[in-house]
Specification:
Elements (H helix, E strand, L loop, with lengths): L18 H22 L5 H18 L6 H9 L6 H23 L4 H12 L13 E2 L6 E3 L5 H16 L8 H15 L6 H15 L11 H6 L1 H14 L2 H40 L1 H8 L5 H4 L2
Antiparallel strand pairs: 1-2
Helix pairs in contact: 1-11, 2-4, 3-4, 4-5, 4-8, 6-7, 7-8, 7-11, 10-11, 11-12
Length: about 300
Amino acid sequence: MNSQYSISSLPPSVDLNTVPVLQALVDARANLALLKGVANSLPNQNILIDTLTLQEALASSEIENIVTTQDEAYQASLFTDSGSPAAKEVVRYSRAMRRGYELWRKHQIISENMLIEMFRVLMGHQGGYRTQPGTFLRNLQTGEVVYEPPQDPWEIVSHMRALEEFINDDALCDLDPLVKMALIHHQFESIHPFPDGNGRIGRMLNVLYLTHVKLLDTPILYLSRAINRTKPEYYRLLQAVRDNNEWEDWIVYMLNSITAVARSTNSLVFDISELMKNMKHRMRKDLPSIYSHWSSPDNVETTILM
């Protein structure tokens, strides 16, 4: 294994428009477009953000062996001082994701400062990029060092500034945004800029980028569920790029993950839409005075009910 992988500028100097990549891209694009359309059928996509962000927080934290229950995480999200340490970490993840989305909406770029702010919310302290050497990624079974990220603080800053430029400047390459997302994720995880939380911040970056390039209107596609089901493959393919420059397999994996999660999220959004329609029908039938009040122009029924 190449623990001394040298991080190069993006995009890599290999052909990324291969047949397997293009085939996987067609499916990912189609399912993502369907998800965007289905989500637009809801009167307020914030409902999805609130619902899906906490689900993503649970799944993404589980990848890092931070495990709690859904009930405990919901309780911790409502009551600041309640819940186990794991539940509180999950809630901080959810808040970091929301903070990132708020900053993106305000500035319309994905910046280093935004990622650092998300890291601070996630960790609950005012830290930033790594400043001390000694960070190594190890095989959990053997203890073998499989990858050594950049150790010099200035090198970390240099790589992150280049990554910020690559994310926001479409003139740097003509790749499809979904392929570009896979490159961005690998680059961020290889830079490994923070002392902790890099996996979680990297997974938040995925969905924020899809929102940034208008493939989604709101950050509602979270790949942690797919990664959780295929975690050994995810880490193997990350390292295969570093060891053997196997970009094709990595990109196809990420595109297939987008397809799988978009399909499952489509089903979830449809279920939420049906539930909202049924609730509206029941209110109209059983509680006409309340329904009439919330349906009036001076109220906000249309933001919470179909």
